[in-house]
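Predict structure. Chain length: 161.
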Amino acid sequence: MKLKVVATLGIVALLSACAHEKANNTAGASTAAIAPPPPTGPIPGSEADLIATAGNRVFFAFNKSNLSDAAKATLQKQANWLAKYPKVNVQVAGNCDDRGTEEYNIALGWRRAKAARDLLVAKGVAPSRISTISYGKDRPIALGDNEQAWAQNRNATTTVK
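Prediction complete.
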């Protein structure tokens, strides 16, 4: 019984000390700078930010390098993002599915990368900020020998350099 009384008195004393400490800290709070909360989400200007804000990949039809309306919309978002971060340089990589010869797919990948780059330049991005490369069929993002996998692999991917 005595232990309960002593414990209760200890808790009351502890709580009153905490309340007194909080009151003292609150009094000076109006003059102290309040630190902003740590940032959440991707770091502005990073590749993760590009992906979250604009998307980093546009897709193409089989054996084509012309841009669809959806691809143009994504590239417009990328151009807007690049305008916001003028010191960021990017690389556009053209990719193909695994059908066709290596030589054919390298050439098609170049045309896809160039089509994406040309639209970014037309939207105001300085050409010196964009490099291009073709990986042909060497860097698939989806494995499989079916239309679903092939469609994912026919793309131009923008990455921050």
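Summary: The chain has five helices and four strands.
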